[in-house]
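Dear Dr. H.,

I hope your travels went smoothly. While you were away I took the liberty of generating a structure for the chain from your last submission, since the lab meeting agenda had it listed for discussion. I wanted you to have the full record in hand beforehand rather than looking at slides cold. The sequence, exactly as received, is reproduced here:
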Amino acid sequence: DEFKAALERARSGIEAVFDTDAPAVREALATLDRLAATPLAPALPELGTALNELRNLRTTRALSQPAHPPANVTEAKNGANP
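The corresponding predicted structure, in token form, is as follows:
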């Protein structure tokens, strides 16, 4: 994973150049450790109930629509003026 590799490069650079006993350096390394332990992919939401309700709503709306459009809509589409 690119992110973890970048964190490791940062850690190596800090350890090579800075005094690892210095409090600020220890804090920087601890921050890198926390970042490395953080999952990057968020947990996906559970859609089970919501998805079923959406499907039910779509079905209900589809069933409540008239099978044929009203006459004035058909006439307007054919170029007739009501």
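Two observations you may find useful: The chain has a mean pLDDT of 86. The first helix runs from residue 2 to 17.

With kind regards,
E. W.
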